[in-house]
TrEMBL record:
<comment type="similarity">
    <text>Belongs to the LDH2/MDH2 oxidoreductase family.</text>
</comment>
<keyword id="KW-0560">Oxidoreductase</keyword>
<dbReference type="InterPro" id="IPR043144">
    <property type="entry name" value="Mal/L-sulf/L-lact_DH-like_ah"/>
</dbReference>
<dbReference type="InterPro" id="IPR036111">
    <property type="entry name" value="Mal/L-sulfo/L-lacto_DH-like_sf"/>
</dbReference>
<dbReference type="GO" id="GO:0016491">
    <property type="term" value="F:oxidoreductase activity"/>
</dbReference>
<dbReference type="InterPro" id="IPR043143">
    <property type="entry name" value="Mal/L-sulf/L-lact_DH-like_NADP"/>
</dbReference>
<dbReference type="Pfam" id="PF02615">
    <property type="entry name" value="Ldh_2"/>
</dbReference>
<dbReference type="InterPro" id="IPR003767">
    <property type="entry name" value="Malate/L-lactate_DH-like"/>
</dbReference>
<protein>
    <submittedName>
        <fullName>Ldh family oxidoreductase</fullName>
    </submittedName>
</protein>
Length: 344
């Protein structure tokens, strides 16, 4: 592929950290953002990978994002809390909220943390995976600026509003679902525009609400399910808004300043996130949980497949991509490689 270069993860980590530090981010902010971006780049979620480093540097320099936030936790119950992100990058807040939820779930069984005064946090799966790797079933979601039409709608209303769920599996990588409630993430539109590629059919629309495959003509995305079944994606997006924004008192999607299509890189966007941790020890017990999820996944993967197809559990594709990229390097578009100082 002539439009990308393949680079080792270690090199990308060093250069991404340096770019965020140069933009003023403190160590916690730069480290968390780099960790989340590399998670996405390793697993093939390139729209939310290191290509976002340039955007984060821009908003750090512009003043939209606090480069040195003082996050504050407010416990409201045994299994409930809020975390004030102090207008910092969302990655550090989301990791901290998941760790807080995980620790509270060890006592309460189930714990939820709402994050307020935050910003874009990248791939939701990074935080759900962190919770699962620590032994809990973990959920992470965030509202975002309006870019997705309602089912039958012809204007933006919801954000792409991602949902991620991860579950620990003994002696295996976690079960991992990471999905936008839109047909595709908007960052994929930007990535395809950078790469000069056409979008798939039925995932985006122009200013009149008509389908378009040209990334340059995209005014809005379609909800998950597309033109015919988008009521499902629109409802899921509303659920994310309910938990991330309404429940926490954060800015509703259609009032959030746009992430990139704006000249305002100074005003904080005040997004909300929501995370949930469930401790299996407090339900069926760890031994029964481990036995059940192992059997469930073994049976799932052994299920009959159509000719020429295969069946996979959520996360299987991502773990395969990660293994491949360990061998070949991570593909990075030339614009991002140039920003990171990795082109000749």
């Amino acid at each position: 592929m002539s439009d990308v270069v393949f680079l080792p993860e270690q090199v990308l980590e060093v250069r991404t950290l340096a770019a965020l530090r140069d933009a003023g981010a403190n160590e916690e902010t730069a480290g968390a953002a780099t960790r989340a971006m590399l998670h996405a780049s390793r697993l093939g979620i390139d729209s939310h990978g290191v290509r976002l480093a340039a955007h984060y540097a821009k908003v750090l320099r512009g003043g939209r994002v606090n480069p040195n936030p003082a996050m504050k936790i407010h416990r409201t119950a045994a299994g409930a809390a809020t975390l004030d992100a102090d207008d910092g990058l969302g990655h550090a807040a989301a990791y901290a909220a998941m760790e807080l939820a995980r620790s509270m779930a060890k006592e309460a069984g189930v714990a939820a943390v709402g994050v307020v005064r935050s910003s874009h946090y990248g791939a939701a799966g990074a935080y759900a995976l962190a919770g699962a790797e620590a032994g809990t079933i973990a959920v992470s979601m965030s509202n975002t600026d309006a870019i997705v039409a309602l089912h039958g709608g012809a204007e933006r209303f919801h954000g792409t509003n991602p949902i991620a769920i991860a579950a620990p599996v003994p002696n295996q990588r976690p079960w991992l679902l990471d999905m936008a409630t839109s047909s595709i993430p908007f960052n994929r539109v930007l990535l395809y525009e950078t790469l000069g590629r056409a979008l798939p059919e039925g995932v985006a629309a122009d200013r009149s609400g008509q389908p378009t495959r040209d990334p340059a003509n995209v005014e809005m995305l379609m909800p998950l399910g597309g033109m015919d079944f988008g009521f499902k994606g629109a409802a899921l997006a509303g659920m994310v808004t309910l938990l991330s924004a309404v429940l926490t008192g954060s800015t509703l999607d259609h009032f959030v300043i746009r992430m990139a299509e704006t000249d305002d890189f100074e005003t904080p966007r005040r997004l909300g996130h929501f995370c949930l941790a469930i401790d299996p020890d407090r339900f069926a017990g760890r031994a029964l949980y481990d036995e059940a999820i192992t059997r469930y996944l073994a049976d799932l993967r052994a299920s009959a497949a159509r000719e020429g197809q295969s069946v996979m559990a959520p996360g299987d594709r991502e773990w395969a991509v990660e293994a491949e990229r360990k061998r070949t390097g991570i593909p990075v578009d030339l614009q991002t490689a140039e920003f990171l100082g990795l082109t000749e």
